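ok so heres the complex, two chains, lmk if somethin looks off
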Amino acid sequence: MSGADPIRLYRTVRLIRRFEERAIELVRSGHIVGGIHPYLGQEGIAAGVCAALRPDDVVAGTHRGHGHVLAKGADPARMMAELCGRVTGLNRGRGGSMHAADFAAGVLGANAIVGAGGAIVTGAVWARRRRGEDLVGVSFLGDGAVNEGMLLEAFNLAALWRVPVLFVCENNGYATTMPVADAVAGSISARAEAFGIRASTVDGQDPAAVHASTAAALARMRADGGPEFLEARTYRFDAHHTFEHAVRLDYRSPAEVAQGRSRDPVQIAGSRLPAAERAAIDADVEAVLEAAVADALAAAEPDPATALEYLYASGLTARTGGG
Amino acid sequence: MPRLSYRKALNRALADELARDEEVFLLGEDIQVAASAVTAGLLKRFGPERVRDTPLSEQAFTSFATGAALVGARPVVEFQIPALLFLVFEQIVNHAHKFPLMTGGQCAVPVTYLVPGSGSRTGWAGQHSDHPYSLFAHAGVTTVVPATPADAYGLLVSAIRCDDPVVVFAPAAATELRADVSDPVPVPLGRGRVHRSGDDVTVVAVGHLVHDALAVADELAGEVSVEVFDPRTLYPFDWDGLLGSVARTGRLVVVDDSNRSCGIAGEIIATVVEQVRLHAPPRRVTRPDGAVLPFAPALDRAVQPGRELLRHAIAHVSKDG
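and the predicted structre for the whole thing:
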């Protein structure tokens, strides 16, 4: 198995990092309403996993989902426009941060409900494989999701029915503010192993390591069909949600945050490139995001008269709210 | 003409759609042995890939169906017990129903949820006897409650072909019915049916209660001319069909196996009185508020909408005004 292209890995983590930082600026300026769940610090996981996927593979993300959507190949400009609620957004301004989806890129959607993506991606992969396609799927989930019964049911279905889904647990240590030690009896990987699902653990701060673990798992999955589980140990550099920028919640010590931030996936991936190459990628990413923000802010907001559009795929028209 | 049972009609609809479209498959508990009868013979004909028995994991297999539908499959999910819909309300309403809008039209979720035995099944008591169709109408999920074998066939076929999620409630009190149906055909969603024409009162009856309404209308034939309107689909509702009937009769009674508060009967009455000046205040016959069906048969019957209350309501709206 050949290693991932270090240039690609660096570019992806840098893109996600700067995307999130620009998005936080737009939250502060009021251009993004409702806030976001920043992926800062966890970029190496989405970058490493998605670098091992094929374009026809599918992923389901989480509420902290920007990194998954971008790493799987969505256009950053359309993603930024979506966060800003514009008609040019991936979801035409109907989804926002927690529902960003790009079916053409194999992104079945970020998802606001913890643990919900596992069964959805299992069903999607099963249905396409029934047609003879040999794709695999990835369900990203957080450490909080391993306590959701629906996800454990999905492990069971994927294992029983030999559906090749890689369940990637981004263990950032906290379910919102609850530490893993207070929330998870037993161990996270043992949850998967109980269903006969092979589980491995990787340093989520190193995108090359994540890529290598993912590629190894996917090779086994494509050969024998069953699911696998990958726990990526990581640290969330910023808030659970940007509301924490205004309301300080006391659950992580400054020393712990400093320690967590000391292992930065952007620095780890960047240190593997010559300085000039890294600078060129940085400049390119800046240009891409500058254009993305400018395009998003210049794009039209949806017409309120279209608020019920896309509610029914069948063409059914809903009654309006009255008067 | 051949006699078609309600259950056989559902079975035939499933078989016909499985045969017609490779993307249709069935998912549910004990469906390979056809514990609820509607999947009888389908395993042998279509195989275990398309007639899939599931572990007792309602939330996961409901969302598994959503995932399959997102990439073009047309799953039919059977729930043996109506209360299981409470367990998967999130998966249906918050996921299957919301995906098309939330993604800006990138996808469709054509899943059919089939409950082949909804409402009271005498003796099944508190947790197996609910009739939660109004919840799905409230959520804006297409909801059908066929009253007859022909409609059971026709509405299930249309549900499977619909590009949106559809919940099909087959009332336990109707599933023993048989009717003369030689060549059942699809029945359009959202179209009601006048089972019996009348001039004095429109009775809207849902599901199995259509047959109670028809029986009462027969009994009262000498005194009151009752029109029996079966909406068949509760959401989207055939407002034009109902308003046409009420515009003629000017009187309205609704008989509905929902709990009273926020049940579909309340919505039907509200919509009618927003648009039609009735001769008398309308009435509804429903389960009580917060109904829990007690076990003992007499108690079970006591909380279901019945013929006596319906006669009373018809008499009431007939004399007012």
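quick notes: Residues 6-306 of chain A form a domain with the Rossmann fold fold (CATH 3.40.50.970). thats all i got rn
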